[in-house]
Amino acid sequence: MTVNLKGKTLRGDGTFQIFQVASGGKLLISGGGTITGGSGENGGAIQCNGSLEITGTSNSRIVIEKNKATSGGGIYVKVSETGKCNISYCDIQDNYAATNGGGLCSGVNTTISYSNILRNRAMTSVSDRKTDNPNLGRGGGFYFVGNATVKPVNELIATTVNDNGCMWYGG
Predict the structure, then answer these.
(1) DSSP symbols for 1-33
(2) Measured between alpha carbons, how far is 82 from 115 in angstroms, rounded to an integer?
(3) Angle at the Cα of 89 from the Cα atoms of 156 and 5, rounded to 5 degrees
(4) CA-CA to 63 of 20 to 30 Å: which in 28, 43, 46, 166?
(5) CA torsion through residues 156, 1, 17, 80, sign
(6) CA–CA distance, 24 with 130 (Å, rounded to integer)
(7) pLDDT tens across 7-65, in order?
(8) For residue 78, what is the DSSP state?
(9) In the 8-state DSSP scheme, what is residue 138?
(10) Per-residue pLDDT tens for 67-101?
(11) pTM, whole model, 2 decimals?
């Protein structure tokens, strides 16, 4: 599926995800604009069970903000051997995850360039932390699961990661 936002805002009411991509599917988002107010178990704004490409431009950025989920507050990309995630000229900000990846939780190899990952949170309560799950509250800005990797830091081209927080590991 290809979506050109054309500078518009897609606004959820906090009760559903904005995009949900089936297993093996592909989602391309372009055209600048904002995706906000989404909510879901995995991925507040976007749950992708395949490949995801978010491509803004220097003059027309894509903003993913104020979404919430159990995992992947803004974006969740499911673990996949064939999937990929490419993000450029995107601001992922002010999203919340109850467990992992306040801004982004990805289970595929991910490339991020010319983007800002700001003020995202991954929080879980202290009582939840006492459970047998050691993976709660990790990665305020982003969290990678399985064998997923992000390009080495020197390849996070012109990307700012700032003021993210989480309860336990990796702000």
Answers:
(1) -EEE-TT-EEE--SSS-SEEE-TT-EEEEESSE
(2) 24
(3) 150
(4) 166
(5) negative
(6) 36
(7) 999 999 999 999 999 999 999 999 999 999 999 999 999 999 999 999 999 999 999 99
(8) -
(9) B
(10) 999 999 999 999 887 889 999 999 999 999 988 88
(11) 0.87
